[in-house]
Amino acid sequence: MTADLEQMWRDVRALLLDFDGPVCSIFANYPAPQVARELLDLLVSQGLALTKELAEESDPLEVLRHTGSSTDQELTRLVEDALIAAEVKAASTAEPTAYGREVIVAARQLQMPIAVVSNNSPQAVDAYLREHRLSQHVAKTVGRAYADPSRMKPNPAPIVDAAVSLGVVPALCVLVGDSLSDIEGAKAAGARVIGYANKPAKAAAFQEAGADAVVTSMRQIAQALMQVEGL
After folding, report:
1. 3-state class of 56 per DSSP?
2. CA separation for the pair 15, 108 (Å, rounded)
3. Whether this model's pTM surpasses 0.90
4. Which of 74, 151, 157, 203 could, after both became Cys, cross-link 145 (CB 3.0–4.6 A)?
């Protein structure tokens, strides 16, 4: 697998990173189910009757996605604003992913441009990067489009936008992501994709979805980058 990763880095020109997973665990100390509950309470306070399925939703991004599927743009903006605030708060106590920083630094030592492509808000991503002194290594942040959850991955648009911003065609980019939406979005954009299986059950699903490579630790990616650098 390391040899395959080394070859991939020789073939690509830019690194795209999902945020929550490959870079950090944003909701490590402000749990996602708690944020989802706060958003649902907000919806109820606005007079929305929750379906049983929505009332049990524990992913705040899915709460936003559901709200955005309605025609009530004012309500979508209200939920978006609340989620941005929660994500920025969560970013202040987010836990760095082991070897995530090493991947970023190794890529920069190869003079490879980096973009973060996230379904989280750009405000939260930028706050985390500043706090952890990573901003100087990341050329572009492409976060969630404001109040337009239809553009979240697996929609390929943010991946394409990130590639364009770096001046690299998607086919010469590799996205590292920890969800099926990352795999699907990258393939739809024409980019290569490494599935970061931070939970054992993810590995088979990523392979089945067509990931170009699957790793269980960001260390594997960092080591491959350092091997290329040492050539």
Report:
1. coil
2. 9
3. yes
4. 151
Q: Which long-range contacts (CB under 8 A, 24 or more apart) does 54-63 make?
A: 58/32, 58/33, 59/32, 60/32, 60/35, 60/36, 60/86, 61/119, 61/120, 61/149, 61/152, 62/36, 63/36, 63/39
Residues 45 and 156: their CA atoms lie apart, in Å, by 34
Three-state DSSP class for 49?
coil
The type of residue at 219 is R
pLDDT, one tens digit per residue, over 138-196 is 999 999 999 999 999 999 999 999 999 999 999 999 999 999 999 999 999 999 999 99
Residue 4 CA to residue 14 CA, distance in Å, equals 17
Measured CA distances, 200 to 32, 36, 68, 186, 204 (Å): 20, 25, 32, 21, 8
Torsion angle of the four alpha carbons 205, 61, 43, 94, in this order, in degrees rounded to the nearest 10: 120
Q: Which residue has the tokens 């939406």?
A: 181
User: What count of other Cβ atoms lies within 10 Å of the Cβ of residue 167?
Assistant: 10
Average pLDDT, the chain: 96
- In the three-class reduction of DSSP (H, G, I as helix; E, B as strand; rest coil), residue 57 is classed as coil
- Cβ 132 vs Cβ 126: under 8 Å: no
Can you tell me whether residue 160 is helix, strand or coil?
helix
Residue 184, token pair as written in the block = 């699907």
